[in-house]
Amino acid sequence: MSQNTLADHTAAAMTTGFAAGDFDPLDVHAAVVDRMDDFEPIINALHHRDDERSRGAAEASATRWREGKSLGPLDGVPVTIKENVARKGVPMPSGHAWVEVPVSTHDSPITERLEEAGAIILGSTTMPDWGMLSSGVSSLHGVTRSPLDPNLTTGGSSAGAGAAAAAGYGPIHIGSDIGGSIRLPCTWLGLAGLKPSFGRVPLDAPYMGRCAGPLARRMADVKIAMDVISGTDDRDYSRLPRFAADDRATLSDSASDAAFDPRGLRIGVQLDAGCGEPVEPEIAATIAEAAERFAAAGAQVETVDPFIDDDLLADMDLFWRVRSWSDLRALPVEEQALILPYIQQWAQGGADVTGVKLMDCYHSVQEIRRRSVAATGGFDLVISPVSPNAAFPADQPMPYPKVNEPMGHIGFTMPYNMSEQPAATVLAGYMKDGRTIGAQISGRRFADELVMAAGTWFEQAADIPLPERTSPN
């Protein structure tokens, strides 16, 4: 395991040190650059690295702190951004090989909010082709690997974001999620993260189910990041307001208190998604134990029955295949040949789908939304596994080898994308072989703050040690 340095500090610890004059943003930047130098040859988390530009931002931040003109709780704090989040002048390949990689002509709302807050953007992190794999396998980047064990996957599609967070490239890393792409890296890397309510974090290219949010080692850093990146932006026609009274309107009185207290909360525990792969026994036991911790603190814990089935999961998978087939066939022939063969074959499954069948799939998506809201609406929170499986080999595109199988590992995560509800992940424990297990904590739509507060409470109550990294030497 690499030596603990300033790179491993939380955002709050960094800014406290800046304010006290114990160290400055340049010291932190140097520590993070050293960490990246050590781990990048092993984990391959970064698509675009901005050492010179980020050092200049760190110098400017150091000056502000010396002059007492801090921009707030992210000023001088290192962050990374997933490569599909636009940064002006930075290549934006969306994880796949190109004859000529497109370069962004603008900054996304997330990029703008982070820079306005003084955050130090270190670079852009990797993802698999089109973000449609739950791994770090990419036709452009090769394989992104876990800093905990390079033989294991990071999860995806926020693969580089997860790897950077687990390796300690600073405290905050921005990913995106359309079916589990923030939460899956979190469970397989022992991280905290949030897939926010749909529209909570503005995007310049919103799409049904797609959200952006932070990955970090602790929920406190997730919350600090959300306070910044949730700023409204008119480019996102699905945008929500900043955290406000409407967040609280959906909660019971006991859930609305500023300090999280499980007493009086009605919490569901779901151990069967009703579709996809069965949950491994060690994972089910760990999640049941996490739910019991809330019960012991005074929550009313009840079982949530399965509410999604394999037919709905298959229609969701087919809907995405048609979308990716449309993207694939729009490329020049020479570009099509560069796409990862697994993705080419997967997208081919959407080639001959009729308009009527596609509408059936769309109606299934809406049924997923209806069932998710109906099944969880009576609970303040629902606790479940993130994935039924633990981390799999790094060079394997999916948890299962067969391309024609529907995505059998997203039965717990995908419904909350379609229902637009917030869902966080926190470290809940370990498999006997040391692989990490995350718990998903979801809430009603708009209840992002409650979900994060519950995650923070669980971290403190469970006091589970963070996973150790591999040695870079």
Task: Kindly list the characteristics that best describe this protein.
Amidase signature (AS) enzymes; eleven-stranded mixed sheet; 14% strand; 15 helices; two-stranded antiparallel ribbon; single chain; alpha/beta; 473 residues; 2 domains; globular
Structure description:
With 473 residues, this protein is α/β, with parallel strands linked by helices. The chain has helices at 11-20, 25-43, 51-66, 109-116, 159-167, 183-189, 219-229, 245-248, 281-296, 310-329, 333-336, 341-348, 355-376, 414-418, 448-462; strands at 46-49, 78-82, 120-125, 137-138, 142-143, 172-177, 192-195, 211-216, 266-269, 300-303, 381-385, 423-430, 436-443. The chain is 37% helix and 14% strand. It has an eleven-stranded mixed sheet with strand order 1-3-2-6-8-7-12-13-11-9-10, with helices on both faces. Strands 4-5 form a two-stranded antiparallel ribbon. The relative contact order is 0.14. The protein is globular, with a radius of gyration of 21 Å. The chain has two domains: 6-245, Amidase signature (AS) enzymes; 258-447, Amidase signature (AS) enzymes (Alpha-Beta Complex), CATH 3.90.1300.10.
The main sheet orders its strands as 1-3-2-6-8-7-12-13-11-9-10
**Structural class category:** alpha/beta
How much beta, percentage-wise? 5-15%
N→C terminal distance: 9 Å
CATH level-3 fold name of the largest domain: Amidase signature (AS) enzymes
CATH architecture of the largest domain: Alpha-Beta Complex
- Uncertain stretches: 245-257
Which assembly state applies to the chains in this document?
single chain
Number of helices: 15
Number of strands: 13
* Shape estimate: globular
Compute the CA-based radius of gyration.
21 Å
